[in-house]
Amino acid sequence: MTEDKKVRVRFAPSPTGGLHLGGVRTALFNYLYAKKYGGDFLLRIEDTDQTRYVLGAEEYITDCLKWCGISPDESPEKPGAYGPYRQSERKAIYRQYAEQLVAAGYAYYAFDTPEELESQRSTSPNFKYNHENRDKLNNSLRLGAAETQALVGSGIPHVIRIKVPSDETVNLQDEIRGNVSFETSLVDDKVLLKADGMPTYHLAVVVDDYLMKITHVFRGEEWLPSAPVHVLLWEYLGWSDQMPKWVHLPLILKPDGHGKLSKRDGARLGFPVYAMNWTDPKTGELTEGFRELGYLPEAFINMLALLGWNDGTEQELFTLKELISKFDLDRVSKAGAKFDIEKARWFNHEWLKQKADMDLLPELKAILATNGHLAKDDAYLLKVFGLLKDRIVILSEFWQQASYFFSPPVQYDLAAVKPKWSLEKTAFYTELAERLSSFDPWHAGEIEHFFKLSAESTGLKPGELMLPLRIMLVGGKFGPHVFDIAELLGREETVRRIHQLLEQLQ
What we know:
Layout: E1 8-11, H1 21-36, E2 40-43, H2 57-68, H3 91-103, E3 107-110, H4 114-123, H5 145-153, E4 159-162, E5 169-174, E6 178-183, E7 191-193, H6 201-211, E8 216-220, H7 227-236, E9 245-249, E10 252-253, H8 263-269, E11 278-279, E12 286-287, H9 297-305, H10 320-326, E13 337-338, H11 341-354, H12 361-370, H13 378-388, H14 398-402, H15 423-436, H16 444-458, H17 462-474, H18 482-489, H19 491-505
Parallel strand pairs: 1-2, 8-9, 10-13
Antiparallel strand pairs: 3-4, 4-7, 5-6, 11-12
Helix pairs in contact: 1-10, 6-7, 9-11, 15-19, 16-18, 17-19
């Protein structure tokens, strides 16, 4: 590619709350495409609607991308040659283009008050400001030039609307869907510039994509209805030959495939839909994210990449480097992709197994601290994790699986022991505890061998004695090999826990 055609893509979220996994996938596909072709990935904050702006949301978006490992080349944090990267800071740019459209006859001033528009909606529930009624409403198409200029000059509040033709077909060539056609008679005259001078999304996105030399626009298919307005604006502003290629991504669907996955679905079905925890600053409501539940970023982006894309093989685990190398728009599906939380957990389990234990040490320490414990030392913590790693799917499960390594059980599954308990078993464990107090070497294999010999010498079956020992050490019928547990707990703690349960069984 020549330098003037260098790939430049952008992720352009609105700072209105938590970042849905669909938004992260859009960012990811932008990133993969840019990096595959040696291009630039931009983050542009689309905050033109200041009424929906949420404090902290922009920083949250940046942190999410950083956690995923797909930080932008240009952004508000890392400005380049095409800034500013917040639309609110570009306000002065947009009016000239809106006025240019008015002067060319492609847009017009509209002076309708909110009350007048509400009145129209009340009398006509399906009211749309369009070619059917624009000549009867309070705008410059009905008013004379002199009256229009007088109103504008006197500061009367007004918006600028695009004048959508009534009988044309707008064609859009999409990289995934091929040619998509729109009848303009079904499209209303969208507001381009609001009364406060801020642009709407429709004007800002086109102007910014042009000025920032964006070559490809990746966005969800829910934006397709807006596409004819955007294509018309590229044409009306004289930029058709520089219009970016369109890539409308398939929706991420609910697990049953019926409709777009939403935050409410996650809450209802018990899984996250946000990349990271998000706390609403107004209500204090916490929405859990994948990161805090213990998902690895490698697993998260791997899972997202395969929601609507595959490389044509049976491969499922991809590093970010592999995704960049193999990503191809020809392999992006037109159909929506059903979200499957069990598959997401599978990805995390697989990545967890591949991850070096030492790399997870900070997260493991944080989990312990959250539960009021400090590791005896890093080596002990890593041994515990190594013993449990295959049993843990997401890191937040670590404490549930490992708590007994850091504090003795508070409750015991006595119902699993009492029905078959006997005086012989009391005598066996009493003697076992005494002999273990001086047993050496303290290794799992040696302890197991000694345990079985002791059982055989009493005539008791080792199989009947294993479960009580597990419950003595763990509290319940779970955990790894019981003698591995004993080795890690140490001689003194193992003996103490045997005595503790014996007291409850007297």
